[in-house]
Amino acid sequence: MIRIAHISDTHIxxxxxxxxxxxxLIVSEINRxxxxxxxxxxxxxxxxxxxxxxxxxxxLKKIQKPLVVIPGNHDVRNVGYELFQKFIGPLNGVFEFENxxxxxxxxxxxxxxxxxxxxxxxxxxxxxxxxxxxxxxKIIAAHHHIVPLPDTGRERNVLFNAGDVLDLMxxxxxxxxxxxxxxxxxxxxxxxxVVDNAGCTSCRKTRKGDVNSYNIITLHDDGRIEVTxxxxxxxxxxxxxxxxxxxxxxxxxxxxxxxxQLSESNVSDRVYFRRKVLENAIRTINERIKPDLVIHCGDxxxxxxERYYEKAYEFYEKIKAQKLVVPGHNDITYLGYDLxxxxxxxxxxxxxxxxxxxxxxxxxxxxPIGVVGRIGxxxxxxxxxxxxxxxxxxxxxxxxxxxxxxxxxxFLEDAGDVxxxxxxxxxxLVLTGHGGNSFGIKVENTPIVNASSVSWELHRNPYxxxxxxxxxxxxxxxxxxxxxxxxxxxxxxxxxxxEPFNP
Length: 503
Ligand SMILES: [Fe+2]
Ligand SMILES: [Fe+2]
Hints:
26 strands, binds fe (ii) ion, 22% helix, hydrolase, alpha/beta, Purple Acid Phosphatase, chain A, domain 2, six-stranded mixed β-sheet, Phosphohydrolase, 10 helices, 26% strand, elongated
């Protein structure tokens, strides 16, 4: 068993101003506890100044355990990354222990609060993950968060290439991603990986009137990982993860439901719109796939003008199956808000047998950034509660988890709170369609599937224009991505279905 103390965001200032009460309390607790080592995920200092680093070096020496320290955005202010290396240590590195490894990455960008794991560093990280692939516990530590966090206000300061980093970690079976930055303690399970955010160990900028805290990570010999959020008030919150192996499932009984999920048709007369590809896709859907429901996750037209809506309507009229269309930000440009309703109707809750589809309007005028809002979140939560006995599918345009190959900018303002609400209320499936690439991951018990563009040339999918095919069985859900031109498929994800859905 390995026990790690995870501290973060100490924001140490120069001697006169620094109030180290919480810090001293937590450090003495750590020194008394049986920890194997300590990880500090950045913002050691407040402004990256020399006197702060001098003070920080003194404060960090109080920790009587092996210590891994990662730079945060505050540490690299005022070219503080030079001082970090002088007073604290290397910006990137590897810490080996018994049956595991911590690979730490400097995710900062000088003078910005946002994060990045740039090209060369990304390659370095990949090489390290390959080098240490045999280790039982692979831990990646960085400053910036990887999935949206609740209770942080507007979703921002994310890792620009969060989607790529997340994808890389899942492919290499990373056991734990550990970070800080937003001053909110939180633990998520993303697929088989634990995402552990530390709160703020010793500065006053906590959220929602919270107190200072640190996280306790326990790596058990049988592969279990336990994370406990320990507040200075003594309050504890515990989360546990057990690895699922093997990951090959076989469905019991026959298929219950088949969904086709499309997005970003962007019907228009622009050269980027591939009419033939869309026609092909619709033919494949009608003749070969024969779904129970077709869902279009936004941007059915490229611009909200009548001519484009007329065309889009003509295409989608040809689909024989029942349809559910939610608007994206392109759909509501110009007169699109009204045209969308005229041609496709107001998206409403759809009940089909034991399945409930809950459309969410997240698009805003003239911006690719979406929002659900606090009232919207409450309404969706109520619907999820109301339809708990059925299989609930939440449908919206904006992605709530980062998408590989796209630059993450926080496409849903309140992604952190929305993600918490959807996972807390145990939505059975969430379908999104922004970012131009397909991606499917499970956060807590909720699979989240993003559709790529079906017929727009400007996409980010190496597989080309695609749509998703989702088959639901009693105990299992399988998601394929179907190439829109060739009709060939590849597996995007496969997840077990747990209670309470049980038809
Ligand atoms: Fe911070
Ligand atoms: Fe930070």
